[in-house]
Specification:
Blueprint lengths: L8 E2 L2 E2 H12 L1 H12 L30 E12 L4 H14 L3 E7 L2 H10 L3 E5 L10 E7 L3 E8 L13 E8 L4 E10 L6 H23 L6 E6 L14 H4 L5 E3 L2 H5 L5 E3 L2 E3 L2 E6 H6 L4 E4 L9 H5 L5 E6 L3
Parallel strand pairs: 3-4, 9-10
Antiparallel strand pairs: 1-2, 3-16, 4-6, 5-6, 7-8, 8-9, 10-14, 11-14, 12-13, 15-16
């Protein structure tokens, strides 16, 4: 989980906001002097803790994650989108097209105009974003989906009146993916839970997890489609000890709920990094009915930063985490 000493978030607003203000205040000349003083101007200045990718930066060479016989869903925190203005849009268009993923649950949409412009440039995709406002408009969640494959309906937000557990009300939509011979339909709930470490924030996430579990159980008991996918930035780790583990209500009920990201967490995979801090806090949860209907789901942290040197600067401090559901045999 995010511990209090981690220099990462201010209510979920990324450190880039602080660093941009810092850079503007110093001015370019002062920055150059400081950098030379601390590092020596004959050295290439890098973050020693950040991944160092290979030289090929052609986004078109990113291996496709999607295929015609699977349905892919990814969760991706876009870090105050667009993190670096027009460059971010340019990068994301190429990345999304190359990955060929059917559905993205996204977080931290800062600029809804830029988000609509992104969708306009993605000919095969459409999308929606949440109606809530948070911290002067930051932190909206959204969905990007292939419009020829997926039909979206029933958009609504949950737990509007529970800002303690849900400072960002979860976004729920109903999705139908038509593969011709097969159709996959399910509820998607896009999450961005409370950030930061400390007992109170853990309690807020723990309460959110329990409330989400009860909500899904009650919906299914009332006759709703039993297929649910909950995806997003949960801001906590699945492998914490029991005292700090906010996910126990779900982890202790494997007959009904499965974290597709649990094997990744046990392997030490990382979806979020700032400086020396590394963690897997972006998760995909499904109800058991989906796994029973489509066994053999594959889940992966897509390490774009290892291929694209601009990733951290222009795109996000989160890697996308994606699942591939085998719909057609």
């Amino acid at each position: 989980m995010i511990r209090p000493a981690d220099p990462v978030r201010l209510q979920g607003v990324g450190v880039t906001m602080q660093s941009r203000r810092y850079h503007r205040g110093l001015g370019l000349g002062a920055l150059v002097v400081l950098l030379c003083w601390f590092t020596g101007c004959n050295q290439r200045i890098t973050n020693a803790e950040a991944p160092l990718p290979p030289g090929d930066q052609d986004s078109s060479r990113i291996p496709a994650f999607g295929s015609d016989r699977t349905f892919e869903v990814a969760t991706w925190n876009l870090q105050n989108f667009p993190k670096n203005g027009e460059k971010t849009l340019d990068r994301l268009v190429k990345i999304i097209q190359a990955l060929d993923i059917d559905l993205y649950a996204v977080q931290e949409i800062q600029d809804t105009v830029a988000f609509r412009r992104l969708l306009d440039r993605l000919a095969d995709y459409s999308g929606v974003y949440s109606a809530d406002t948070y911290s002067d408009g930051y932190q909206k969640t959204g969905v990007i989906y292939k419009k020829e494959l997926v039909t979206l309906s029933g958009k609504k937000q949950l737990f509007w009146n529970d800002s303690f557990r849900f400072p960002r009300p979860p976004l729920q939509v109903y999705l139908e993916a038509d593969f011709g011979a097969e159709e996959l339909d399910f509820y998607l709930i896009v999450l961005h839970l409370k950030a930061y470490g400390g007992a109170e924030n853990e309690d807020r996430r723990r309460g959110a997890v329990q409330k989400l579990k009860s909500y899904v159980e009650n919906q299914i008991a009332a006759g709703a489609d039993p297929d649910f996918i909950l995806a997003g930035d949960w801001n906590d780790q699945l492998t914490d000890d029991e005292v700090h583990n906010v996910f126990l209500p779900l982890l202790n009920d494997p007959e009904h709920f499965i974290f597709l990201t649990l094997p990744l967490a046990r392997k030490g995979e990382v979806s979020y990094y700032v400086g020396s801090y590394r963690s897997l806090i972006d998760h995909i949860l499904i109800t058991r009915s989906i796994q029973q209907a489509y066994p053999g789901i594959e889940t992966e942290v897509i390490k774009l930063d290892e291929r694209l040197s601009y990733f951290y600067q222009d795109v996000s401090d989160h890697r996308p985490v994606a699942a591939r559901i085998p719909v057609l045999n």
